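Q: Convert this sequence to structure tokens.
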Amino acid sequence: MSVLRILIKRNRIWVAISIILSLVANLTNMIYMYYVGELVNKIEERAVVSMAFIVLLAAFILLSVATLFMNQYVGRITAEKMAHTLRIGYASKLIHRSAEQGKECDTAAAMSVAQNELAQSDGYLTNTFFDITGMLFTGILAMAFMFLQNVLLTLVLLIPTLLILIYVGFSSRSLSTIVSAAQDEKRKMNQAGFTTVHAFPAVKIFEGEELCKKAMDERLVSWTKHQTKVGRFAALYNTLSGILSRVPLMLLLLAGGYMVIKGKILMGTLILFLNLQNSLTQAIMNLPNWIAGFKVFTTNLSRIEIEKRG
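A:
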């Protein structure tokens, strides 16, 4: 986690802007959905829908689109800046280490890190890191927003959600362990390959090609088995979490429909909750993959040394 702290610290202004934009974008979207629910309530009650209300709703729709675009745009820029910091920091560390030792660094080890840990960490930052952050913010804000609207309906949604989180926590830990094992096998395979290339002249002289090929094939087979296991368990856990994530929706429809029929809430309130629950259940459904991916990301970072200066 020390490398991640360095990356965040060096790009703290962009990270802060991204977090603020994520909060603003999600909050704006929820306010927009709230006014849509209010519009449905007004129509159901046959109340007058003023022009000011229509203008306000239209303004929040436009604001929601604008803030969502800015959130995605700035988030991508921030992620790329963090990835660039990681790449440059790693290169600087290699140069300084070589200068301090007065000799070339271990080329095989450096290439292995660049091929495996560095490349995957770079990809995670640019493609996933801030998307996950935004989803988590959305889930937290949605829960708080629903509590303000109707406590009973929120509890109907929250209680089964907490039970599902127990399963998600178990599956996430299991999947993280399997993914980490697959990452170790890939790293060993890369190191074996790079070591063979680095020492190829000696291997050629002593006719060790067959021995190196056999060792590489063994590593490849081992990595393939672990990777297949990752795919199988990821499919199983994600399928189950997807099915379970529909349970809160079903309970919400039953409880909310009953309350609408009894006149305890209006249809617009139920529509608002149906829209907001998707933000929560979507985050839960993807938690196993997210947690496993983040564990792999932090594991990769722990194997990377970057220059702390600058």
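DSSP finds ten helices and no strands in the chain.
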